[in-house]
């Protein structure tokens, strides 16, 4: 039986958007992601058995092409799928998206969903690299805005205990699925919740949040990890300070370099000191300590 092959080249930033946009049209098939040829970071390929969803997919992904994040979606009729040549994608020294190949590798298995955090976006990569540096067994950690659950899974696989929260029900469901797929249920608790006055800020993309629990900040955590917009972190800065113990740390990402000065000044006034920093292109991840 003939298949419709769809393919495009994409930037690192585009991968999460591709996954999310395909989920909006209920595409549940395999997404093959391989290393791309310069200037593109990845080549993406997937298949349809018929044309039922083709127009929806073309419309959903067209915005990425218009903004320069991908090439134009190409289609072809093929007799069989091309076997993926994708290798495991290593992040830092130990984390691997896909199958672990070495004894010390830590495999992170995350399925496609509407929630952000595939492991291919620079903000997620930088977060994972800082997590590898700063997470030790036994820490109590808050994953603020857990998205796909990839950071919670990584933290738990390093031996820390995690409370994963998000005000988006889809993200909470995705994180719970990731926790179960990676068998870290004993270390990760997932809640539809916000920290402090975060419940007043609404959905990060303007959607409905429904009934969201509030986590009262009261020196609850040794470490808070947040891969979210800088404006949210600035609004929540006082709650972050109240929630983290002394000594304690923050790992913050999800924003570009132009927000670094304002964020560091805001947190510095509350007693945080910048202690680690990573950058990839314009994207940065920052670690602070009390």
TrEMBL record:
Keywords: Methyltransferase, Transferase
UniProt key word Transmembrane: no
UniProt GO molecular function: protein methyltransferase activity
One Pfam family cited in the UniProt record for this chain: PrmA
Gene3D superfamilies for the chain: Vaccinia Virus protein VP39 (3.40.50.150)
SUPFAM superfamilies hit by this protein: S-adenosyl-L-methionine-dependent methyltransferases
Residue ranges that the Swiss-Prot or TrEMBL entry lists as coiled coil: none
InterPro entries (alphabetical): Ribosomal_L11_MeTrfase_PrmA, SAM-dependent_MTases_sf
Gene Ontology process terms (BP): methylation
Keyword Transferase: yes
Protein name listed in UniProt: Ribosomal L11 methyltransferase
């Amino acid at each position: 039986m003939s298949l419709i092959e769809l393919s495009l080249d994409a930037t690192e930033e585009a991968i999460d958007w591709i996954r999310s946009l395909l989920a909006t049209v209920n595409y549940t098939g395999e997404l093959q992601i391989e290393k791309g040829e310069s200037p593109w970071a990845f080549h993406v390929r997937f298949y349809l058995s018929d044309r039922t969803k083709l127009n929806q997919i073309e419309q959903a992904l067209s915005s990425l092409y218009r903004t320069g994040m991908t090439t134009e979606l190409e289609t072809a009729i093929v007799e069989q799928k091309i076997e993926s040549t994708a290798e495991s994608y290593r992040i830092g020294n130990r984390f691997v998206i896909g199958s672990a190949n070495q004894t010390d590798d830590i495999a992170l298995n995350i399925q496609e969903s509407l929630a952000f955090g595939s492991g291919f976006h620079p903000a997620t990569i930088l977060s994972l690299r800082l997590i590898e540096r700063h997470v030790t067994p036994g820490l109590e950690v808050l994953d603020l805005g857990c998205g796909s659950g990839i950071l919670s899974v990584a933290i738990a696989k390093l031996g820390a205990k995690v409370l994963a929260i998000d005000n988006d029900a889809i993200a909470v469901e995705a994180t719970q699925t990731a926790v179960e797929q990676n068998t870290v249920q004993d270390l990760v608790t997932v809640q539809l919740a916000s920290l402090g006055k975060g419940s007043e800020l609404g959905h990060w993309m303007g959607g409905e949040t429904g009934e969201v629990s509030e986590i009262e900040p009261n020196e609850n955590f040794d470490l808070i990890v947040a891969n979210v917009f800088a404006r949210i972190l600035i609004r929540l800065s006082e709650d972050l300070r109240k929630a983290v113990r002394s000594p304690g740390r923050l790992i913050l990402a999800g924003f570009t370099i132009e927000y670094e000065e304002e964020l560091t000044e805001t947190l510095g006034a509350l007693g945080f000191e910048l202690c680690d920093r990573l950058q990839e292109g314009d994207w940065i991840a920052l670690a602070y300590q009390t």
